[in-house]
Structure formats: structure tokens, C-alpha cells
Design brief:
4-stranded antiparallel β-sheet; 38% helix; single chain
Length: 134
Amino acid sequence: MSKIFYKDGYKYQLAETYVVETMLRPYVTGGNKFVSIDTKGVLTINEGYAWDGASGPAIDTKTFMRGSLVHDALYQLISIGILPRNQRQYADLELKQIVLEDGMNPLRAWWVHLAVKHFGDIYSNKTNILLSAP
């Protein structure tokens, strides 16, 4: 019997490559086949990238989707060592800026930023374990 191998924890998959300029400025260009960032802070998230949307008790809304995509991609770059851990605060600020641009209520955006500021370290250390079935 053959097995399948997969990773858990994703709800959404990007249908088109998305490129955005960020405030982060890594010393080197790096990433993987789904997400990369260059030394000018240009983040490229390739078609097929999977992410989980808003984390915790937060609700996925249209004003949260782009921010959660970029934030998850930046946290992934932190977790794989492309961005240093001290850049997490800038990833959190990127999230806040994007959700405000996308029309999120400023009070909700403040709460979102507060939550990632205090609890984001759990997720920036996250690696998805390879699972198999059967």
C-alpha cells in the first residue's frame, strides 16, 4: 500500500502570484519555492502558497485576507531563518498597515496588532510537520 504525505493547518491557497513592497530590509535575498523576499523588501508570494487566514479567535473577513497572507508569509520567512527574529515587530506592523488600507475598523486593527504583538512568537516559531496516511 502506498502512502500520501501532507501538511495540516491551511485553509486558503493563493490562486495568483502576489508581489508587495514591505518595510523589511533583509541583508540577503532568500526564500523557498512559495515565498521569497529581496534586499529591498519586495515580498513575492507565489501561486499555490497556502495559509490559514486569521489565527486564534479572529474572524476571516475581506479586510483581513491580504494582511493575513502577507503576515503568514513573513512569519514563514522568520521561521525558516531568512528573516531574523527581531524583524517580527515589522511583520506585525505590516499586518496592521495592510488591514487598515483594506478598510478594517481601526479599533479592530489595533486589537489585531496587539494580539500578534503578544502572541505572535508562538506562530513565528511554527513549522508544519510532515504527516502521512494511511
